[in-house]
Amino acid sequence: MYNSNPPTNTDLPSTRKLIKSTILAAAVAGVLLVTVVMPAEYGIDPTGVGKITGLKKMGEIKTSLAKDAALELEKQQETSQAEVEETVAEQVQELVPELVVTSSVQTHEKTITLIPDAWTEIKLEMEKDASVNYTWFTDAGRANYDTHGDSKSLDISYHGYEKGSKQRDEGVLTAKFSGNHGWYWRNRTDETITITLKTTGTYQNIFIMK
Q: Over the stretch 159-168, which tens digit does the pLDDT of each residue have?
C-alpha cells in the first residue's frame, strides 16, 4: 500500500496569499462587470470598452426590446380591459330596455270593424298622470263614443272623461289615476264601419275588450 505524506505548513498557502487571491478575484469580477456584463445586458458603458467591443450596442438592443415588450404587454392589458368594459356595457344595455319597457313611450295603431249596433272597447293600462296623444276616426259615418277609465285596485268602476258622437276625434288623454283608460265605441248606423285608433304615449299595455 502506498501512503502519501500529509502536506506541511510550507506547502499550504498562507493567509496573506489567500487574501491577495480573493482581492484579485473580486477585482477581476468587478472589471468584467463594468466592461462586459453592464454593456452587454443594460447598455451601460462607463469605461467605453463596451462601445469598442460592440457589447454596448447589444445591451441597448436588449433594453429596447425589453421596453417594447413591456409597452406591448401594457397595451394588451388595456385592450383586454376595454373589451371587458365594452362587453359589460353591451350586456347592461341589452337589459335596460327590458327593465324600463313599462314606462317607455309606445306607439300603436288598432283597427276594428263594427257591424250595425255592435260595440267595442280599447283600453290602455296607465299610471297616474301619464299622458297619451290619440287620434281615432271612422271610414264612414259617426260612432258613439265614451272616453273613460276604471281601476280594480282602487275600486273605481267608472270615471268619465268625455262622450258624444263623432266621425273623428283627437287630443291628449291624461290618466287621473293608475288603471285602465280608453274608449268605448258603438255603431248606431245602418252600415258597417271601421274605426282606426292611433296612440303615442306612456302606457304599459293596450288591449281590446271586445
A: 999 999 999 9
H-helix segments, 46-145: 49-53, 55-100
Whether 19 maps to a domain, the answer reads yes
Cβ neighbourhood burial of 119 (10 Å; 0-12, 13-18, 19+): middle
Number of domains composing the chain:
2
- Other CB atoms closer than 10 Å to residue 184's CB: what's the count? 18
- State whether residue 8 is helix, strand or coil: coil
How far apart are the C-alpha atoms of 69 and 64, rounded to whole Å?
9
Domain span at 154:
105-208
For the whole model, what pTM was predicted? 0.52
Helix (H) or strand (E) holding 32, with range, is helix 15-32
Tell me if 182 is assigned to some domain: yes
Cα torsion 139, 141, 147, 150: sign: negative
**Counting Cβ atoms within 10 Å, is residue 197 exposed (0-12), middle (13-18) or buried (19+)?**
buried
119 and 204, same domain (yes or no): yes
Reading the block at residue 141, the C-alpha cell is 259615418
